[in-house]
Amino acid sequence: MLYRWRQFRGLRWTCLLAVWGWFAVSSAGAQEAGPSIPGAHPPVTSTFQLTGVGSCAAAGCHGGDGSRKKSDGTTVDFSSSSYSEWIQRDPHARAYDVLLTERSKNMVRQLGQGWHAAHEDSRCLVCHSTLEPTSAKADYSVPQWLAQNELLHDGVSCEACHGAAEKWLGPHTERNWRGHPAREGLGFVDLRGNLVRRAETCVKCHVGGPGRDVNHDLIAAGHPRLNFELSAYHANLPAHWNVEDDRRAFPLLENSRGSILEAKLWLVGQLTTADAALDLLATRAEAVQPESKGGAAAWPEFAEYGCFACHHDLQSPNWRQQKEPIKGRKAGSYPWGTWNFPLLTVLEPPDSPLTDALLKLEQTMGEPAPVVSDVLPQVKRARELIAAELVKHTTPVSLTADRIQQLLQRVTRDGQALSGRDWDAAAQVYLGTVALYHARLQTEGKISSLKVPEPADQELLTALETLREKLKFPQPPEAPARFASPRNFDSDRIKVIHEQFKKLEELVKRP
Ligand code: HEC
Ligand code: HEC
Ligand code: HEC
Ligand code: HEC
Questions:
Q1: Is there an atom of ligand 4 within 6 Å of 311 CB?
Q2: How many Å lie between the centroid of ligand 1 and the Cα of residue 265?
Q3: What's the mean pLDDT in 313-332?
Q4: Are 474 and 487 in contact (CB under 8 A)?
Q5: 160 CB less than 6 Å from ligand 2?
Q6: For residue 14, how far is its CA from the centre of ligand 2 (angstroms)?
């Protein structure tokens, strides 16, 4: 009931299309994009001003039809059609338009007093356009001149990810731009060389953070739950860049034909997502401190907990009363962080400081009224440990093929127990297995030539396919078309899922 079917479609995509369809690169048809004129008052982002998508869209810049060749004459210059790709196929180009739909209108009606029209309320625009959050929160309506500005109407456009272009628009057309040492100082966000930066860019909207909040109020009013996983979302985003080049920028040390991009995306995604979720938790905790003005903030925030712990049918016999007890979580306590954290414990040895810190926090947050002065230092500690991990991934330094294989084996092994916890953990283990399986193919230099699965892969793919089926929500006519939830996730299903991960653990062992 709570879950939008479309969201789950992401998982299907990842498994099927991402393996065989990754190399189906840009095929943007020609589209003439007349340069639009940005508004008279470009809004200020953090430091620099936005220039608007109009400054990228010219046919000679990024609005071409994808036929322009690179200077070597052989390979396509993908940057020539980035705009065309975005406007035609990227969901971000519609991010503003959805604020004008009946669904959004109904959401703000449900939210009640104090909300403006969705397309004029900064609490929606901070994620559905290029508007940056500001600290002035007294009035959430955006000024009229800004509300009418094309910069917002363009939705999540180039500068939301690549950075406000005021200072780099000129320099970035010059030859030496890729190696320009001061790019980031000009406001350009280096998504290419630095995957942590790339992940941070996505999570600011797909997880949220200070000033960007999809809380339980919004969800209850009709907003989809945010459950982000970087490798899946990255694969689902229609690429407007050269995917092969991207892979080559992260070579495997022992075999330069192989790439570690996918493995890094998954690892960095897990860590960055967790960090963003913790940042959001700290922001919410600070808002309930007595000395803070936002004393009316909801605490604890339901959106951080497993949805289906509260929203499930009571049944008899009840599989929840028969399942294996979960370490540190007693029956009836609130399951916190079910989506964003379960696999961090797989990355680390069981008694590592990070696993320890997260377990402690999970216990604190599992109480009906978590004590803010306990929560804040625990969050700080966990974030420090995550930051120390992330530092290792800020440059294309290498992961080895052995480490990737070890992670794949660990996810399938630990997944057997984790998948019995709840749907969130099972879905994360599934996504992790898919990502690390891709990652292994990439280390073998295989992914771009693998058109038809080899027999060794066939069995593995069948197991993954079964898992995907078992994780699917009931479909119409069993469940309403628009909303769905895993109400069929019960002990029978968990048993099958468990068996499939067991099988996978064997299958992923190398011959
Ligand atoms: C923290 C960032 C954030 C905020 C704040 C936010 N959204 Fe969203 N919204 C998203 C993301 C991300 C998605 C896509 C979710 C997905 O598919 O994984 C989305 C999806 C939606 C959808 C579904 C779109 C579709 O194509 O089906 C609607 C409608 C929507 N948001 C409306 C709103 C409204 C109205 C508000 C303000 C009341 C709002 N959003 C606030 C990030 C946000
Ligand atoms: C949702 C985030 C996002 C948005 C919005 C976005 N990009 Fe990108 N862009 C990326 C990512 C991720 C990459 C891949 C990493 C890289 O090459 O920097 C990329 C790569 C590129 C590249 C490098 C292409 C290559 O292969 O050389 C260009 C050029 C580009 N984007 C232009 C644009 C333009 C123009 C727009 C707006 C019409 C846009 N981007 C909107 C995330 C985004
Ligand atoms: C400024 C906010 C923002 C940023 C930054 C952002 N997104 Fe989004 N993203 C959204 C919103 C809002 C939607 C929903 C759009 C809609 O459905 O109309 C969305 C939708 C998507 C979807 C489609 C989801 C679905 O259910 O079909 C994918 C995939 C996606 N984003 C991937 C990414 C990736 C990968 C990055 C980082 C490179 C990123 N996004 C950065 C706001 C953002
Ligand atoms: C601690 C318990 C709790 C948790 C956790 C929780 N909710 Fe709720 N939720 C409630 C309560 C209580 C209501 C109000 C019920 C009503 O209006 O009948 C509600 C209402 C809703 C509604 C509107 C009513 C409906 O049936 O459509 C939606 C949608 C919803 N929640 C989704 C979610 C999602 C998605 C999550 C996970 C991110 C979640 N909830 C987590 C307790 C919870």
A1: yes
A2: 23
A3: 74
A4: yes
A5: yes
A6: 20
**Measured from the CB, is residue 302 less than 6 Å from ligand 4?**
yes
Q: How many residues does the chain have?
A: 511
Q: Work out which ligand 1 atom sits closest to the CA atom of 101.
A: 29
pLDDT at 135: 65
Say what the pLDDT of residue 5 is.
30
Among residues 220, 422, 429, which one has the least CA distance to residue 309?
422
221, exposed or middle or buried, with CB in 10 Å at 0-12, 13-18, 19+?
middle
User: At CA 156, angle to CA 161 and CA 439, rounded to 5?
Assistant: 50
Q: Summarize pLDDT for 436-491 with one digit per residue, the tens.
A: 999 998 888 776 545 566 777 888 888 998 998 888 877 667 666 555 567 778 88
pLDDT band for position 380 (50/70/90)?
very high
Tell me the mean pLDDT in the region 45-49. Answer: 71
The answer to whether the beta carbons of residues 109 and 89 sit under 8 Å apart is no
Q: Exposed, middle or buried by CB within 10 Å (0-12, 13-18, 19+), for 416?
A: middle
Nearest ligand to residue 236 Cα: 3
Phi, psi of 163 (to 5 degrees): 100, 150
User: For residue 199, which ligand has an atom nearest its CA?
Assistant: 3
Per the prediction, the chain carries an average pLDDT of: 82
Sign of the CA dihedral with 432 first, then 434, 437, and 438 last: negative
For ligand 4, whether the C-beta of 427 sits within 6 Å is no
Identify whether the C-beta of residue 9 lies closer than 8 Å to the C-beta of residue 471.
no
pLDDT category of residue 35 using cuts at 50, 70 and 90: very low
Q: Whose CA is nearest to atom 41 of ligand 3?
A: 202
d(CA 339, ligand 2 centre) in Å: 28
The alpha carbon torsion through 453, 454, 456, 460 (nearest 10 deg) reads 0
Q: How far is residue 7 CA from its own chain's centroid? A: 12
Distance in Å, CA 2 to ligand 4 centroid? 8
Residues with CB under 6 A from ligand 3: 6-7, 10, 91-92, 94-95, 98, 127-128, 156, 160-161, 198, 201-202, 204-206, 233-234, 236-237
pLDDT for the residue numbered 209: 94
Q: Yes or no: say if 422 and 307 are a contact pair by the CB < 8 Å rule.
A: no
Indicate which residue's Cα is closest to atom 2 of ligand 2.
Answer: 161
Among protein residues, the one whose CA lies closest to atom 42 of ligand 1: 127
pLDDT digit string (tens) for 106-141?
Answer: 999 999 988 999 999 999 999 999 998 876 666 788
459-479 burial code (b ≥16 CB/10 A, e <16): ebbebbebbbebbbbbeeeeb
Q: Which amino acid is at 309?
A: A
Q: Which of 98, 204, 304 to mutate to test ligand 1, by most ligand atoms within 8 A of the CB atom?
A: 98
pLDDT (0 to 100) of residue 30: 24
> 34 falls in which pLDDT band (50, 70, 90)?
very low
